Each structure stands twice: as structure tokens, then as C-alpha cells.
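Worked problem 6 (solution included).
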Amino acid sequence: MTNPQSMTPEQKKRFKYWQTRTLVGTMFGYALFYFLRKNFSLAMPGMEADLGISKTGLGIFLTLHGLVYGCSQLINGMFADRKNARYYMSVGLLLCALANFAFGFGEDVSYWITGVHQGVPFTNYVILFMGIMWVLNGLLQGAGFPPCARLLTHWIPPRELATKMSIWNTSHTVGAGAVIILCGYIMSHMGTDLSGNADVVASIAANLHVSPDDAEGMQRVMVSAAHVGAWRWCFWIPAGIAFIGSIALFMTLRDTPTSVGLPELEGTETGSKSAASKQAQTAEAKAFIRRQVFRNPIMWILAFANFFVYTVRFAVLDWGPSLLSQSKGVSMTHAGWLVAMFEIAGTVGMLFAGWATDRWLKGRAHRTCVFCMLATAVFITLFWQLPTTTPVWVFFVVLCAAGFCIYGPQALIGIAAANQATKKAAATANGFKSLFGYLSTIVSGIGFGFVAQHFGWNYTYIVMIIMALIGMGILLLMWNAKADGYGQTEEAAEK
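Solution. The predicted structure is:
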């Protein structure tokens, strides 16, 4: 491993220990952030049944959270580059846990205000309070990734970052998968059984717009009535786990190698030592971030490309079950598994894309992204053309192939941004590109819903294919860019 000032064998051993500890610690911590936002999707059926919040209202929750989260990534990134990442990440996780815990009391808050448990005023206050808590959670969620970007660029050499960052990105799947399993169990086994209460059954039927003579619909009503209030625990239990995790995170992480008496990585210097030591207090640090992020054409290319990557990814994750069941005739059970495997295959794709970038493309992550986006468009086109009579396993293979391809850019654009901005501005750079990524919820959320409702699912496939091809075209604009920006910053420092 490269290291400055020729590390002694003991220093190398300690550096490797802290590098591994940082990688594992940030993976664990970021997975817990997913515990506190992916839980919402599993709780939605219960919230609709118990509280009468419409699918449209729940969709607005998702869109607002995505937009606020994207803005928060940029804001928190700018702060994280100047603050101790260990403190920043652990405190952010703690506050997210508190917001989720409060969210679970939304029904109680509304009752305290209105004095009733149902009706329009009750529902409106529930939506208002929960909306405030969920927007607040979105703001706090931005304290997750930017500190990770700062930590990893301090502990991992640029030429190793693609491989190790791809490993780190499996935290997405670990966190999302674990909370889906946990909340699935909660929704199936917890809550209060009120299926024998005629008033509760009637209320749930009204909330779900199910007629008493609809036998299939009433079965869903009775299932919901057997687990009234289970949705609350989808927020309380993950919040409790994350609270404990925030303490563990604080005890595990260290901000930089120098904080444990080790030298900084060789080849990642971005200016004089005096400038580096005072970057948080000087105008030079702000100028550096402006130059490397906001005035850097490469960073804008990566940010715009990220918009299209996330549009395709979120389209499958958010609309996958409906799209599969309604356009391909797949059962909801199979549809759920297909979407889950799409993400799992994506994890494998991230690992392969990171390895391939370091192995064959000399760290040029943007070139790998070009090939991945083209392949994504091909596999989505193939999936679109499959007839409804196609065996489920064929749908499975083709959709997994699309997931394998799209998750490579999802990880590698962050890696490219960190390397181009250098470790002094890595958090800001990733916050900037993430802002564009979550702005995609306007298209992948409300936009895709409008297209599907008014034009049909075929046009959603066409839009996804176009989005993938546009993303590929944007990435082609930086085909000849270098793997990182450290050489450029050294030249700027000399001038």
C-alpha cells in the first residue's frame, strides 16, 4: 500500500487495521441510514388502511423526501468537508432515529389535537405532522453519505478506491434488504388483532375503498384488521436499532490517519501542509471547493449523468411491482422477489464494475459507466419485448441483468466524483452529484406515474430506455478525462 514517509511495518499494520475498521464501520453505519428511510415503503399499506392516507398522499411523501434528501446531500457535503466525519455521521444517525421514533406517534399527535381517531381533520393533522417529521428525516439523512466519502478518501488510495468503494456500496443492499425482511415480519406478526371489531373493519374497508360485496378486497381488509398499528413498529424498532448503532459508530470511526498518529496517504496531497491544516478556517478551502466542484465541468457532467442513472434505478424500485404485475401478468409475490433480486444482482454488478475499473480501465470509472448504461438500455429493451407468456425465470434473468448493469454507474459516479474533487472536496462533490440523483424522483415518481396512467406501461419502458441512453451520452463527454484530479490540483497549487 502506498504511504508517505515510508511507513514502518508497525505503521503499515496499524494503517491496514484502521482502514478495514473504517470500511466496515461506514458500511454498517450507512446501512442503518437505510433502516430509517426504506422502512416507509413497507409501512405504507398499514398507514393507508389504518389512517386513510391515500396512495397519492403516500406518493407525495416519497417525492418530497427524495427531493429534500437530495438537497440535504449537497448541504451536508459542504459541511462534512469541514467537520469531523466521525461526529457528523454518528450524530446524524442518532437524529434520524429520533425523527423516525416521533413519526410513529403521528396518529397520537393528531388525536391530541382533534379528539377523534378518524375523519378528514384527523387525517389532515396526521399527514401534516408526519410530513414534517419525514421531511426532517430527509434533511438528516444527508448526514450519511458525505461523511463516508470524506472518510474513505482519507483511508483508501485513489487507485484502490473503485474496488473498495464498490464493496462499500453493498451497504445499500444490506441495509435495504435487512429492513425489508424486518419490516415484512413486523407487518405480518405485530399489531393488534381487531378483525372481530365491525367498526374497525368498516373503517379499513372505507380507507381502502373496498366494497363489502368484494370478496377478494375484503380478504385484504381482514388481513389489515388483524395487524392494526403494526406500521408504527416499522419506525420504532429500526429507530431503536439505529440509536444503538449511532453509539457504536461513534466508538468505531476515526476521522483521518493523523487522528490516530499515522501519516496521510502518499499521492493525495492537494497543497502545502499549512494550507491543509487550516482548510476549515481559510478562504483557500472555499476557493478549492468552488474550483474542484462547482466550476469543474467534469463534476457537472457526472451530476447530470447521475440524474439519469437514478431515474432508471428508482423507476424499477418504486414502480417495479405494479409494472411487472400489470404489464407482464406476474403475480405480486413473484413481482416482489423480482424487484428484490434486481437490487441483489445490482450489488454483484457494483462489485464487478469496481474491479473491472481498477483492473482494465486504470481507475477511469466514467468509462465503465458508459458501457454499463448502454447495456442497461439493451436489457430493458429486451425485457420490454418479452411477451406475457414468458416463463418467470426468463423475466428474472433479464431483469437481474439490467440491475447488474445499472448499479455499476450508481456506485462508480460517486467514486469518480470523489477522485476528481480529491479528498479535500470529496464530500461536497458527492453531495452535489447526489442532489441531481434525487432530483430524478420528479421523473421516476410523479412523472412515471403520470405516463403509466395516461399512456400505458409501454411508454414507461420507452422513457426508461431513453433515460439510459441519454445518461450514456452525457458520460461520453468526459471519455478522455483522467482518473483523478490530484495532478491538476498540484499544478494549481504551484501556480
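Discussion: The CA atoms of residues 250 and 464 lie 41 Å apart.
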